[in-house]
Design a protein that fits this description.
2 domains, mainly alpha, single chain, about 220 residues, Arc Repressor Mutant, subunit A, Tetracycline Repressor, domain 2
């Protein structure tokens, strides 16, 4: 007598991967912002139930953290060696603006401290490395990096035309370069600004400039 066995039921964990869930979440965020991301809508987009998504993420907040970290991980990082520091900072500011226009909800995420993840940390540390490689002290490097990031965020919020952004950034870097020259004459200063304070300044800038509102959506290639 031949016995038949039923196949083992497939669980939602077998059908979907976390990466698929995160990429679908990013698509919803790009379309409708943070408020537009719900587990029910995400489940519908993926052809599953909201409950099934919890095989892959602990909570909606966890999903936002993963989405934010994924987007930051895609931001290009300029070479520290072999590239003049001004050009490196210009490139990183341009990359940040482009990222914010592709993912406008990220500006709101920047005001939510718990959404800072490992990829954001790598980006910030790389920006600091570019500045310190130019001869800045750690403290001045943090100030220079914060100035560039704040300018990039503010210009994205205001949807400032690219020629004006280029002029403003180059003027800002002129001031930073002058500061570097002053610092070289007074070696030995020490101390470093706390990263939490740096990010708090960024969040305060976003809130005061646009109350966490995303910049206008730009079509690809803008």
């Amino acid at each position: 007598m031949t016995s038949s066995t039923s196949p083992t039921p497939r669980t939602p964990h077998d059908v979907l991967r976390q990466e698929q869930v995160v990429q679908a979440a990013i698509a919803l965020l790009d379309e409708g912002g943070i408020d537009g991301l719900t587990m029910r809508r995400l489940g519908g987009l993926l052809g599953t139930t909201a409950a099934a998504l919890y095989w892959h993420v602990k909570s909606r907040h966890d999903l936002l953290l993963l989405a934010t970290d994924t987007v930051w991980s895609q931001a290009p990082l300029s070479a520290v060696d072999g590239l003049e520091w001004r050009q490196a900072l210009l490139a990183m500011a341009g990359n940040l603006r482009s990222m914010l226009f592709r993912h406008p909800w990220l500006l709101v995420a920047m005001t939510m401290q718990p959404l800072d993840g490992a990829a954001r940390d790598r980006h910030d540390e790389h920006l600091l490395a570019v500045c310190t490689s130019a001869g800045f002290t750690r403290r001045d490097a943090e100030r220079a990096a914060q100035s560039v990031v704040t300018f990039a965020i503010g210009s994205a919020l205001a949807d400032t035309p690219d020629p004006n952004v280029s002029f403003g950034l180059r003027s800002l870097l002129d001031g930073i370069e002058a500061r570097l020259s002053e610092a070289s004459d007074s070696a030995g200063r020490e101390g470093a600004a706390d990263r939490a304070m740096v990010r708090a300044t960024t969040r305060a800038t976003v809130r005061s400039s646009g109350a966490g509102k995303a910049p206008p959506h730009r079509p690809a290639g803008h």
